[in-house]
Amino acid sequence: MSKATVLYVEDNADNRTLVRRVLVAEGYEVIEASDATGALETIQKQRPDLILMDINMPDMDGYTLTMRIKTMPGMQSVPIIALTANVMRGDREKSLEAGCDGYIQKPIDIDTISQYIERYLRKR
Questions:
Q1: Could you check whether the bond before residue 48 is cis, i.e. omega within 30 degrees of 0?
Q2: Rounded to 5°, angle at Cα 108 from 105 and 110
Q3: Model pTM?
Q4: The domain that contains 23 carries what CATH number?
Q5: What is the mean pLDDT of residues 19-30?
Q6: Nearest-CA neighbor of 91 among 52, 55, 49, 39?
């Protein structure tokens, strides 16, 4: 039985590869987008169960993309977890205000990321 489908929006190919390997090993289906445009196109074709969202991307930041996704039909209840190297005071709050349901600081702890994802999938 397949677990949930996770869309990982990340412009860094090495990060995408690492997270994909970890999540696929845990039984998740992983779809990827390297930028905001790709993420929006992917969501039109396949609705993910959860989105891992990089905040710092070249074409549109993750805050703006999150707000756009949350206005799309059927996407309001899909959890979006911000992934960011931003550790300034207020970054977590800014992510939540944009519509993210959770926040993970980079570097990602590959030993606990699947548990974190499961926690948000159970909340849906």
A1: no
A2: 150
A3: 0.93
A4: 3.40.50.2300
A5: 96
A6: 55
Question: What tokens appear for 109 in the block?
Answer: 């702890």
Domain containing residue 66: 5-123
Contact between residue 51 and residue 23 where contact means Cβ atoms under 8 Å apart: no
Look at residue 1 and tell me whether its pLDDT is greater than 60. no
Taking only the tens place, the pLDDT of each residue in 27-74 is 999 999 999 999 999 999 999 999 999 999 888 999 999 999 999 999
Number of domains present in the structure of the chain:
1
> Rounded to whole angstroms, how far apart are CA atoms 71 and 37?
15
Q: Are strands 80-84 and 102-105 parallel, antiparallel or unpaired?
A: parallel
